[in-house]
Every structure is written in structure tokens, then in C-alpha cells.
Amino acid sequence: SRFSIFLTMATNATILFTEFKIRNMLLKNRFVRSATHEAMATQGTGRMTPELVNLYKALAEGDVGLIISSHAAVTSQGQVGPRQLLIESDEAISGFKELVDVCHHFGARIAIQLAHGGAKAKQAELTGLGNLVVDTLTNEDIAQVTTAFAEGARRAKAAGADAVQIHCAHGYFLSQTLSPAFNHRTDRYGGDAASRATIALEVVRAVRNVVGPEMAILVKMNSQDFIEPTPEQPSVGQTIADTCVVARLLQEAGVDAIELSGGIERGLLARTGLTLAKEAYHKDYARAVKQSGVTVPLILVGGIRSFGMAAELLEGGVADLVSLSRPFIRQPSLVKDREMLQIERVACISCNRCFPTPAVGSRMACPFAQVAPPSS
Residue 155: which residues within 8 A CB-CB, separation 6 or more? Predict the structure, then answer.
């Protein structure tokens, strides 16, 4: 009956509020705020703002276990928008420390996501800096970007962050190195999935050398690229078979957790019109990654909209933590709302109207944010 289903969902959801440890980072629950581009940093310079600090304060007050920052570009060359966070110099440390401190004050843990836009970067148009294109990278280029990721991690650690997340998803630089749609190299950095993972693995090792053995290193990667092939570009990109190979290599390299997402373009990153049947649209890929021998914690993002589904993913061993992006834009308090009000679904309707459009100066904002969440 409907009543018995409600009771089952409510009972099973208790797993979502159990502690979980990633390396030495103890989380108070299984909820993760997935990295979400807010377009709220200072124009061009990518510095922290009171607006961002207040946003993260709301998430931490709302009892999110792990907050992953929006993608912080490790170099200005790698910025994909003028109001993206930048972690290129030591001058950025104090701003990130503000973010870390406010999260810690309310018992949340925070990971700083480190990213480079590669061929997707927009700063070339703004500053004249050339983009990094995988096929034309020199060994010096690879060494420089690897060092930039390591230096970003050093700054994140100096700011007091609990972890760093290396962004290898969504068609940004490291995602491009993993994908046969972008990486056509014939040297040791190209070829099969394992060879295409070489640059990402070098970045992971460089980051570990800088942050030491205690700090958690996370990676965000695609389940699949979901590229529609064309005569000019016949590859579908990274497949789930590739992802399983790369995930095992990341595990061997000492990565502490993997967040599984998918897609290159925004329409595939954030689907609209989610129904119960379409919830958690990467769950089958997560199951495949687990079955391939990946034993490090798996964080699943993508269309999780009910606490029953979130609990089912954990109970069934599909994932170890659940990650959400758009729901936290509308409802930063949703974890606490579940605890206090026993809501069954998030308020987010997956309309995608929250996304910032940096080209016209808009920021991340939900048009329905003041609307009360549904009671059931």
C-alpha cells in the first residue's frame, strides 16, 4: 500500500544520516553538495566574495555532510568564465580559508575542486591566452599544468580544506585527456583508456606529493561522455568500459573517493522533467563501476530527487554517498528539512533555470527559492 511504501522509505532513509569516513575525513552524514558553478567570484580575478561565503554558510547550516566547492581554476588560462573562482596564487588562500572556516563552524567538511577548462576555457577570448588543446600539448605544457594542479592543492590545504577534488569530468581539460573524442595522441599520453589516463594519474600523484598522506583526494569523472557522433567526429567519447579502467587506475594511484557524473554538454549534465522512473540516471553506471573492482567510496550525482531513492542507492551498495547540485540551489536546508520535517522529496523541479550565464553576467539562482518545499 501507499502507506507501507511511505514507511519503508522513511525507515530506510536513516542510512543517509550515518557517519562515513573518507581517508581521515569523517562526515556526519552521506549527503554531498556537488560542485556547482555559482558565478559569484570577483570579476576576472576570481577572488572570494561575501556572497559566496554566505552561500556556503547556508549549506553548512543546513547540515550537508560534505560540501564540494565550485570549480576553482588552477590557472587563469583555465578559467571558463570571468566570475569563476581562481586558485592560481597564494593571495587566494585567505579567501578560501573564509569558506573553510564557515563550513567547519557548522560541522560540515569541505573539499576544494581543482579544475582547468582546457579547450573549453573562455579566458583565451578575454585575455589572449591560448587554450590547452590535448593533441598539441608539449611535455612542458603537461608538466606546467600538472604543477598548477599540485600548487592549487597546496593552497587548498593551506586554507584548511579537508580534501581536494580533481575535476576529470564534463569535458574540461582532464576529461578531454581521458576522452578519445578529444585525445588522439600517439605518444604515451594517448591510445587506449589506460594510456589516456596518464596525464590524470600524473596530476593525482603530484597532488598527493604536495598534500601528504593524511588529506583526502577525490576525483570527479564521467560515467560516459554521451557524445552524439558525427561524420567529422565519429567518436562517442569516453564509455563506461573506459571509465571502469580509469577508475581502477585512480584507485591504485591512491585516490580516496570517486564522484561519478556524466556528459560533456550542459543538457546532458542536468536533465529536465525528472520523474521517479528517471531518478538517479547514472545509477546503472555506478553499479558497473563497483562491479569492475572499484572499492574506494563511490559518490553518485545526477537526478537524485527523493530520499527513498537516495537510501535505496546506499542500501543496495550502488553508491556510498549521494551528491546533489540543483536541489541545494533551491533548498540549501534540504538535509535539515528531512531531519526536522521528514520531507520525502526535494523541492527542486529540475527546470535548469538556476544555471548562471556568465556571458550576460547572471549568477546561480533558483527562481523558486522562496517557495516552500513540498510536504510529501
Answer: 87, 90, 92, 93, 96
- Give, for 254, the enclosing helix (H) or strand (E): none
Q: Which candidate in 172, 189, 281, 285 is catalytic?
A: 172
- Judge whether 192 and 180 are in contact, CB under 8 Å: no
Alpha-helical (H) ranges within the chain are: 2-12, 50-61, 93-105, 123-127, 139-158, 173-178, 193-196, 198-211, 240-252, 266-269, 283-291, 307-315, 326-330, 334-341
pLDDT tens track, the chain, 376 positions: 343 344 444 445 899 999 999 999 999 999 999 998 898 999 989 999 999 999 999 999 999 999 999 999 999 999 988 899 999 999 999 999 999 999 999 999 999 999 999 988 865 555 555 788 999 999 999 999 999 999 999 999 999 999 999 999 999 999 999 999 999 999 999 999 999 999 999 999 999 999 999 999 999 999 999 998 889 888 999 999 999 999 999 999 999 999 999 998 755 544 554 455 578 889 999 999 999 999 999 999 988 888 999 999 999 999 999 999 888 888 888 999 887 778 888 876 677 777 666 544 567 787 777 544 444 3
Q: How far is CA 178 from CA 232, 256, 287, in A?
A: 19, 19, 21
CA torsion 85-75-115-103 (nearest 10°) is -40
172 in catalytic set: yes
